[in-house]
Design goal:
The chain has about 100 residues and is mainly α. The chain has four helices and no strands.
Length: about 100
């Protein structure tokens, strides 16, 4: 399966928007403000959805990296330090798992 890069998706989107705008103005003439306004609002909604997806993905990546760092730090502790926190080596991974309150992607 081929990878599609984010820049390619944006380029396709911009090209399609420009082409549809040119076709709308050419076919309907300059008297189509509702159609152009619809294109603009649809474009804004699509960009908003893309931004939300990207920010959620970024938050998930940050959360994953923080869990990995916590796992490394807990693994580096001695048995006595772990016992002081109420953990043992067998429960380190369980302690670093996301809780039910965290959104899973």
């Amino acid at each position: 399966m081929r990878k599609i890069h984010f820049a390619t998706v944006i380029a396709i989107f911009v090209t399609t928007s420009i082409a549809s705008h040119v076709l709308a103005v050419g076919a309907l003439g300059p008297v189509a403000p509702d159609f152009v306004a619809g294109l603009r609002s649809g474009t804004a909604a699509l960009l908003r959805r893309l931004r939300n997806r990207f920010s959620h993905g970024l938050a998930a990546a940050r959360s994953y990296l923080a869990r990995r760092a916590a796992l490394r730090e807990l693994s580096a502790l001695g048995d006595r330090e772990l016992r002081d926190m109420g953990l043992d080596r067998g429960r380190i991974e369980q302690a670093c798992r996301p809780g039910p309150w965290e959104r899973r992607s």
